[in-house]
Design brief:
Blueprint lengths: L9 H20 L22 H20 L5 H26 L6 H4 L5 H18 L5 H18 L11 H10 L22 H19 L4 H22 L12 H24 L7 H8 L1 H17 L2 H13 L4 H24 L7
Length: 365
Amino acid sequence: MAETKSKRLLSLDVLRGMTVAGMILVNNGGGRYSFEPLNHSAWNGLTPCDLVFPFFLFMVGVSIFISLSRHAGEPGIVTKIFKRTVIMFAIGVLLHAWDMLIWGDAANIPGQLRIWGVLQRIALSYCGASLLFLAFKGRHLWKITFSLLVIYAVILLAGNGYSEVAEENWLGKVDRALFGNHIYSKVLDGRTPVDPEGLVGVISGIAHAMIGVICGKAIMKGKDVGEKIMNVVVVGTALGIVGYLISYGLPINKRIWSPSYVLVTCGMAACLLGLFTWLIDLKSYTKWSTVFQWFGMNALFVYILSEMLPSVIGVTGISGLLFDSWTSIFGPESPWSFLFYALTLVAFMALCAWLLFRKKIIIKI
């Protein structure tokens, strides 16, 4: 059996890379005629599509523990955290501006530019979890996480948090009051939904990242790979059970990032990390995971590039040609056309990730 001699586990890069590849797939493969797993749940519930973002945020938490355990005492560490937060948040906003600019909607940027988004949620969750970790010196992590989830649960229960209509839901009301038109504005089934990455949901996002920190501690503090696996699988199983049980009162809901959603998805991510650690770091079954390692080494950069790509190929007509090439085989209303179109974009991003990996270039955000 192969034992890792260093604290770096390849499985961490692989799971991180798999989530990025998954995010690219679901961001470009969803639609009216797509396979159901490539679409988000309409409201309460959980589909495979609903797993990729929380898995990535979980891995952000794991990375927080690894990084801050090494650099917590360094001068200026808080400044570095704030700097990285601002950069990620700004890039997220600029991605929305990029999309509007490319599609000739620049005149509406001042009045309608969306403030919130995936990178913004990651940025604030990373910042909150990192600062809490430093403030409490890595202690009381479970108590902090539990407190955040309880606070958020109270907000949901007291503020009609499970209403699908933004005007009736406190989460939506806060975003509309503070940010006006600068929020998610797509109308679904005649309703204006809650912004899925809005301000109040950051509370739950921080708790989510904190669970990643806890699992990072569980897996990195193990004396050997076997103990690392046992630690993270035990934590993950417990999280999944608790999350499932509380879903009877607080249903699993991705859009509002409900506490049950946090616990169930973190539990699944932790168990998957344990499985990958067994396969890759203990058994050395690595050939299947190479492409995900490429994605994982430059995860945020590849994701950002993948968010910029659809606008460019869309306005130039390339996306239409790509999609037509698949519809000519499967038909315009076939879910296979949507799937292979999305896989084509994933393959292109894999090529970009491979080039960076081959040149040993790691772009840190």
